[in-house]
Design brief:
29 strands; single chain; alpha/beta; about 45% helix; 4-stranded mixed sheet
Length: about 900
């Protein structure tokens, strides 16, 4: 081996390795994307984390999966762009800075808009790179020179451009509309930003007397009696026979004396309550639509701070919830409150501050989403965009087909300010990419820009193409758009994925923003509960990286990823996968100790190959092809577990053990050199296949081997080590493995210590081909079973006395134990164990025959009991066979 090759330490320590290699990858420009490259393109845009954020385990999963794809594609010969960046996170960031200022006794209003926005930029410069640095600790191989921010100048220009284009097409408009309003944040919220929570409330049954003085009244039910003050109609369903006689009559609104009509509208559920519903257009979204259909007056009685306004009469100035209590008391005093019943119902809260939202009538900006959504649906139906797993396609359709116009204006200071100006002279609205100097209608130079900013998701919706330079036709856009895949969680399909599809198709003239959308599941704790600070079950990925290494976390997350199934994560699982790094490290050390005089690229002499050599070369070729297929299909868990099982099981537990005699020189120099060449080929391929999942440890090991010149990622994806897969070789080796396992199991049943040699194992073989195979592999079988002798005979051979037996399809296997243990004691032990086991079997059968148990027990408990019964019955059968065999 070359003298300058690094010597591996005795144990694996990720701390010095990870920072060293990440710095080297950056220095070497490993992650840089070249738009002029002739290689096929593969591109991903990172879901931009909030600039206020810190890495959580969901980020760790999301970015690990993206990194696996990007690293594997680079190795497979693609020009890869993984474009990183952060989101300005309007409400979240403004709240963080406002809280910081409040600690100094300063409000944003004390500073004024411009100075406050400058303060936010200062905060962003200080803290905004936190999560980016954390992603680097995880090993994310983004092209960091291309890092973008949703409010940098290029993206701001893109936002203004698309806004103006949509406005000119009539797809953005300004209008008075009932919106979700947060009285605490003082801003509009989209439907998706409202979190609904179940809470206790009350149903109030109230009577509205007839305006003509006739006896009787119309009875309605409400959960919000404070809105009675803004009622402008009572509605019934057109086909409600019991109430049809009320249509056209007039009633009096309690407490305010307003006379309002009884109207008919399909919105009403005739089976609910009395079938009569009060209509308050300014304070309920359904009532707002009814009001538009019937041209009803919109009377606002609650202001933007949740305070009753001048239209509320004597209740003006009261908080909305305090006014509710006062109004209920007055309704009762007037004798029109008929009943109050307890109610459990869903109430909307602000997703940021958790204040109860208020439906609020306000002048806002909207995107007319229907035409954009129709194009988005067609792009998926037509196969331009594919959801993986496929189940999310219908969820997407359902939301897109029931979409409402999107309120995009926010009453904040931090964000993309709406590019609309109002003429102070004539009221003309001017929408433009740049600030106009004068009104195009009257020539006035006194213009005022709209105070509102755009919803954060508006700029995020442009992310796949704005980050590549749009509206300019850049080389990056030409090479890497549409992107190959979007990797994200299901919780932002509507917030972000759908909007990127709508904006991408619109802005890029019908080109979709990505070809595939891979939706990963949630990371939960080991019990399946959602992680939260209040539960105390949060796993901090940075702590895990510090304690176990980034590779251990990455391998765990990848291995536990199964399409459509949540991940149950625990530190115990991470610790288990950390052991794989030790196994790989120690296997590499063993190999290197036996490769000191080996040469990289040493030719494998096929004449010197034995069955186990041919088998492992065929298997590594199969695994390489299977890894490509699995990663192309986004089967991350299957890919990670394949490499785990192959490396630990087939390479370490089988091949390395079988290679030891040859490496010790016991089989001649030709066999030693050939085995060295096979070992080099195996570790070269295994390290390359593992690299996308565990990049740090594989890079460190790669550099220690003779083949390890240059960075591992630049050496490409493994190719087949055999011209064609030899199924017979694989089948023959699998037969040998079954024989070895059977002898090992018999040893374990006889309680023979693992290191103790046994005098003999005997096989009675059914056919000549298998007999010849076993004879050719006799040394290997004896090596792996620690047997001094292996007796092989045709099927009519005599069974050894006092032996344990195992049966395979092709052979009977016997382990003579008369000289190894006290047979009489062993017989008694087996009888005692069998008696105990049969009691357990009867107990399990009794449980499963108990109807109450089967009806009441959780499904997983029943399944566990069934599995226990099956296992115990199989053990009992083996014990009976051993009792019979030993007694003969």
């Amino acid at each position: 081996m070359e003298s300058e090759k690094k010597q591996l330490g005795k144990s694996y320590d990720p701390v010095p390795i990870e920072d060293k290699w990440y710095a080297k990858w950056i220095e070497e420009g490993l992650f840089k994307a070249d738009p002029s490259s002739p290689k096929p393109a593969f591109s991903i845009v990172i879901p931009p984390p909030n600039v206020t954020g810190s890495l959580h385990v969901g980020h760790a999963l999301d970015n690990t999966l993206q990194d696996i794809l990007c690293r594997s594609k680079r190795m497979q010969g693609y020009e890869v762009l993984w474009l990183p960046g952060t989101d300005h996170a309007g409400i979240a960031t403004q709240n963080v800075v406002e809280r910081s200022l409040a600690q100094q006794g300063i409000s944003r209003h004390d500073l004024g808009r411009d100075e406050f926005v400058s303060k936010v930029w200062e905060w962003k410069e200080l803290y905004g790179s936190t999560i980016i640095n954390q992603l680097k600790k995880l090993g994310a191989s983004c092209d960091w020179d291309r890092e973008r921010f949703t409010m940098d100048e290029g993206l701001s220009r893109a936002v203004r451009k698309i806004f103006v284009e949509l406005y000119k097409k009539g797809l953005i408009y300004r209008g008075k509309y009932l919106i979700n309003w947060c009285p605490r944040c003082q801003t509009a919220l989209s439907d998706l930003e409202v979190e609904h929570e179940e809470q206790d409330g009350k149903f109030y049954e109230v009577s509205y007397k007839y305006a003509d003085g006739e006896e009787g009244a119309v009875v309605v039910m409400t959960t919000r009696p404070e809105t009675i003050l803004g009622d402008t109609a009572i509605a019934i369903h057109p086909r409600d026979e019991k109430n049809r006689h009320l249509i056209g009559r007039k009633v009096v609104v309690p407490l305010v004396g307003r006379v309002i009509p009884v109207i008919e509208d399909n919105m009403v559920d005739p089976e609910f309550g009395s079938g009569c519903v009060k209509i308050t257009p300014a304070h309920d979204p359904n009532d707002f639509l009814v009001g538009q259909r019937h041209n009803l007056e919109q009377i606002q009685v609650i202001d933007g701070k949740g305070i009753m306004n001048e239209n509320a009469g004597k209740y003006a100035g009261q908080d909305r919830f305090a006014a509710r209590e006062a109004i209920v008391a007055d309704l009762e005093r007037e004798g029109v409150l008929l009943s109050v019943t307890d109610l459990r119902h869903s109430v909307g809260h602000c997703y940021r501050c958790h204040t109860v939202i208020e439906p609020y009538l306000s002048e806002q900006w909207f995107v007319r989403t229907r035409p954009l959504a129709d194009a988005g649906v067609e792009s998926v139906r037509g196969g331009k965009i594919r959801f993986v797993p496929e189940q999310w396609t219908n969820v997407y359709y359902q939301w897109m087909e029931n979409i409402r116009d999107w309120c995009i204006s926010r009453q904040l200071w931090w964000g993309h300010r709406i590019p609309a100006w109002y003429c102070e002279e004539c009221g003309e609205v001017i929408v433009d990419e740049t600030a106009p100097e004068r009104c195009p209608k009257c020539g006035c130079t006194s213009l005022r820009q709209d105070e509102d900013v755009l919803d954060t998701w508006f700029s995020s919706g442009l992310w796949p193409f704005s980050t590549m330079g749009w509206p300019e036709e850049t080389e990056t856009l030409k090479k890497f758009y549409p992107t190959s895949v979007l990797v994200t969680g299901f919780d932002i399909i509507f917030f972000w994925v759908a909007r990127m599809i709508m904006f991408g198709l619109e802005g890029m003239k019908g080109e979709q923003p990505f070809n595939d959308v891979y939706i990963h599941a949630l990371v939960r704790d080991e019990k399946g509960q959602k992680m939260s600070k209040s539960r105390g079950n949060v796993i901090d990925p940075l702590t895990i990286v510090r304690d176990y290494g980034a590779d251990a976390l990455r391998l765990t997350l990848a291995a536990l990823t199964v399409q459509g199934r949540d991940i149950f994560l625990s530190t115990e699982r991470i610790s288990t996968y950390r052991l794989f790094m030790n196994k790989l490290w120690n296997a590499s050390r063993f190999a290197l100790m036996n490769l000191e005089d080996a040469e990289a690229g040493g030719k494998i002499d096929e004449k010197e190959l034995q069955l186990h050599d041919k088998w492992i070369l065929n298997r590594v070729s199969q695994v390489s092809a299977e890894m490509t297929r699995l990663l192309d299909g986004y089967f991350f868990g299957e890919a990670a577990r394949l490499m785990y099982d192959f490396t630990w099981g087939e390479l370490c537990d089988w091949y390395l053990e079988l290679s030891k005699p040859a490496l010790r020189g016991e089989e001649g120099e030709g066999r030693r050199r050939t085995t060295q060449a096979v070992l080099l080929a195996l570790f070269e391929d295994v390290l390359r296949l593992l690299h996308p999942i565990i990049p740090f440890v594989t890079e460190e090991l790669w550099q220690a081997f003779p083949f390890g010149g240059g960075l591992i990622e630049r050496r490409g994806w493994p190719e087949k080590r055999v011209a064609a897969i030899d199924e017979k070789v694989i089948a023959d080796m699998e037969f040998i493995q079954r024989v070895v396992r059977s002898i090992r199991n018999l040893r374990a049943e006889a309680r023979i210590a693992p290191q103790q040699m046994i005098p003999e194992a005997a096989l009675s073989v059914h056919n000549d081909e298998k007999l010849a195979l076993l004879k050719s592999c006799e040394k290997q079988i004896r090596l792996l079973t620690k047997a001094e002798a292996l007796t092989l005979a045709a099927a009519d051979g005599k069974k050894p006395e006092r032996s344990l037996a195992a049966v395979l399809d092709e052979a009977q296997i016997y382990l003579p134990v008369g000289e190894l243990l006290d047979v009489e004691k062993e017989l008694q032990r087996l009888k005692n164990d069998l008696a105990r086991l049969e009691k357990d079997i009867e107990k399990s059968k009794g449980k499963l025959a108990n109807e109450k148990f089967v009806e009441r027990a959780p499904r997983e408990v029943i399944e566990k009991e069934k599995n226990t019964l099956a296992d115990n019955e199989a053990k009992a059968l083996r014990m009976k066979e051993n009792l019979k065999s030993l007694a003969e």
